[in-house]
Structure formats: C-alpha cells, structure tokens
Amino acid sequence: MAHRRPIGSLTNRGDGAAVIAAGSEMIKMLTPDRRTVEAYTAWRRRRSDILARFFVNPNDPILDRAVIEAITEETPIDRRTVDQLVVTELRLPHRRWLGPALLKHFQIATYNDINPRDRRAYQLQLGGLTTIAKGRWPARQGEHILRGVRWYYRNEIKQPADDLPSLEAEYAAAAQRGSEAHSTIDAGITLAKNLLDLILVDDEKFEGWLK
Fold it and tell me: CA 20 to 30 Å from 182, out of 15, 63, 144, 155?
C-alpha cells in the first residue's frame, strides 16, 4: 500500500520527522558498509597520533581537550573525503547531505571509543525544522519509512545489491502476503526516495537542511 505525502517541499513538522527518520535509517544502513568503514578508517588515521597518546594517558586533562578538538575539527580534507565517499564510492551525488551527516557519525563513534562511560547516540540534525508548522508525526514510529529505506539501500546502494525478487520473497515469507510483496516494496522504496529528496546540503556550513 502506497503512503501518500507532499512531494517537493515540507509542509509541517510531521513531514520533517518522517524525513529525519528516513535520513537516520540511511545513516544506520551505511555505517557498516565497507566503503563507509574505509572512509572512517582514513578519517581516524589522520588523528592517530593524538588518539594513541590519549589511550596511553587517558586521565591527562590537556590530552583530553586536545583529542576532543581533534575529533570535532572538520578539515578541508575531511570534507573532501566524505564528499568523495558519497559521490564516487556510494554513487549518490544527489544525496551529498550524507557527507556532513556521516562526518558527524564518525565524530560520535570516536568519542564513544574514548568515553565508554559517557556514550552518546547519533542523531541526525537538520536545519529548518523549527520554521515549519506542527503536524502529525509518523505512525508506529515510522516503521514503514524505515523498512522502505532499508529496501532502497539493499536494492540500489549496497554492493552487491539484493535484487527485487529476493526482497519480495523475503517479505512474502515474513508477512505471509505474497501477492502484495512487489507493490509494497515498490511503494516503500519510492517513499524512501521522496523523503530523502527533501534533504539538501548547505555547502558553506557543511550541514544538512530540510527542503
């Protein structure tokens, strides 16, 4: 069953919440992707000296401040690396907002490594949400949105991709709705793309914004 929504711009915070749910799930799917892991490894390698010194002396307050600064700093090469990841490796030039989002994810993942007692959860932050009216938030925590994003990733981004017949067979077996598998997956992928299309990138600030 297709889920209707405005396409082309946001009309309320309910739509905004749906977009954030879709974007957050895409980051979650991309995190273990080999291409993302390689970019993250390269990002950490550029901070290897300060991280190594910190792990040897974790109680040194000067090192603690220095490592936080190193983690949160966004250098030109950092931005180029994640942009290349999105555009060239993931082949998603129309979703360049993933660059700054993944960079924030790298920062939080590393922070959690050095602060295991103060772990922080990654949250996709997008500008523009407070400027639109309140609306209905996605039903059932946006379960249908998350499912559509997962299908989109697996069918069009993941390497090697999972073909549609495989996804349909998997869905049919789990939901016991074989006759609806194709239309449900098609609608889910379409919805995911429509929602993700409503995220833009501010190149100057290097952050994602709602369209």
Answer: 15
Structure tokens, 123? 């949250």
209 strand-pairing partners? 127, 200
94/156 Cα distance (integer angstroms): 14
Question: Strand runs (DSSP E) across the chain, as ranges?
Answer: 199-202, 207-210
The count of other CB atoms within 10 Å of the CB of residue 41 is 10
DSSP notation for 40-90: HHHHHHTTHHHHHHHHHSTT-HHHHHHHHHHHH---HHHHHHHHHIIIIIS
pTM (2 d.p.) = 0.84
CA angle 18, 125, 54 (to 5 degrees): 140
Domain boundaries, the chain: 13-141
Q: Which amino acid is at 75?
A: T
